[in-house]
Each structure stands twice: as structure tokens, then as C-alpha cells.
Known about the structure:
Helices cover 37% and strands 13% of the residues. It has helices at 4-17, 71-74, 77-85, 106-115, 170-175, 206-222, 227-242, 250-262, 267-281, and strands spanning 22-25, 88-91, 98-103, 120-123, 128-133, 139-143, 146-149, 155-156, 166-167. The termini are far apart.
Amino acid sequence: MTHPTLIRRDSALALAVNGxxxxxxxxxxxxxxxxxxxxxxxxxxxxxxxxxxxxxxxxPCHGWAAATTDPAVLSSGPWEGAWxxxxxxxxxxxxxxxxxxxxxxxxxxxxxxxxxxxxxxxATTRGEHWIYRGAMQSANGVRPGVDxxxxxxxxxxxGPGTGTMAALPSVVRTLVEKKPSPVRPMPTxxxxxxxxxxxxxxxxxxxxxxxxxxxxxxxxxxxxxxxxNTVYATFLAVLSAHGRCGCLTEAHIERLFAAAQxxxxxxxxxxxxxxxxxxxxxx
Length: 283
């Protein structure tokens, strides 16, 4: 019997030969994190990974930026460990000049059928991928159940799909265009009880609080994979340190939400993450 590792690697090599930049995904279907040599951007990569930097690391680091068509790299020794642990193969749509409209549920699929031109479709676990010819900016949560995966993003390879690929329509590009009005609503203020005993809050120092918020923003900005998990963990850390003393203001929360949205998180994901973190801490 052929080992699953060889199946995934051979599939990746076959896709690469046809010009599709590929990378392995871990068992939880996320890109592998940066290796020790590349953590904290020591390799020279920019924090937001818009420019991967001069990194020469042979491992599949930097999420979507690791995608390659080079069979020598895909078959090299340093990638063997990743393929052994891989749960799936992914590709970088933008580098292949395609855009994936990721439809997460039946309502999203129904909207696409009413609104978008027919194109190649691929069935997913929960919905469908509609694939168009042409690259664009990626964005999550452009409407309920709809994500756009193209430049600076990755999509799971789930097969060639069916149908003829159509040109990227303007209606898809419009979904991620910035509107003149605010892109997110005002976050709900955090109201929590004062410290037990009524003592002076140790976090009232503006410098201490500012440093904590700035570090949280930077942690989100520096994330190159597992963005959802990083945002939630950061919200949890901020609330754990500052959530019980009433220090946090709407302005602080807006800054955290803005950092998360700059990484592709939707307002809904931000709000859910914040609410879940508060619930986990009993706030």
C-alpha cells in the first residue's frame, strides 16, 4: 500500500509540474509555522509578509510564501519532515493567477448562483470553491460565509473540479473594495468589576497599558499562519492582564480589532474572538 506521505508529496509534485505553487498543510489544515531560524523575522522577512524577504530557509516557512513549483525544493530533505506530518496539500492561488471564492455554506452557494458567473467549482467539506482566472487582493468575511483567497493567501487542493474557468468578474473585486464609511462598527466597551478590595489598579499607568496594547498589536501583525488562533490567544492575553480592572477603553479594543482586520479577519471573527475570550475568563 502506498504511504499517505508519498501520495501527498506526489500530488504536490504533479501540481507543481503544471505551474501551481504548492505547500504542505499540517494535520489541522494550516501552514507550518516558521522554523527556529526564521522566528521573529530574523531571516529578514517583513512582519506582515507582504514582502517575504531574503529568507533562504529550506523548510516550508512563512505560510503562503512557502508555496513553490520547484520539484527539487519539494523533494528536498528539509521538507520531508513536513510531508510526513502533512494532512493536506495547499496552493497559492494568486501566484497561479487565479482567485478562489470560498463559499462556506448553502446560503453562500445560493448567493453565488444568483450573483456570480458560472465557473470551475470544487466541492469542499462544507461548501464549494468557485475558481476564476485572474488574481486579486484576498479578504475574509466579505459577506456571510464568503472568503476571497488569491494573493497572499492559500487554498486547499481538493481536486481539479468541474466546469470551465471564467475570467474574474468585477463583482468579486468589488467585494473587497474599501468603502468610504468605516469598515467595522464601534466595538462594545469592556465593563468589568473593580479589583477585589477596592485597591488602586496596578495597570492605571498609561505607559504600562500602552506597552501591553502595542505588544498585542505587534503579535497579531507578525503572525504568518494560524491567524484565527493568534488573534484569539492575543485577545485572551490582553483580557487576562487588563480585563478585570476596567483599564481597557473602546480605543484600545479598536486598535486590536484593526490589527486583526489588517491580517484578514472579519468584524464577525473579531467580535466572536473577543466574546469567547471574555467568556473563557469569566468576564
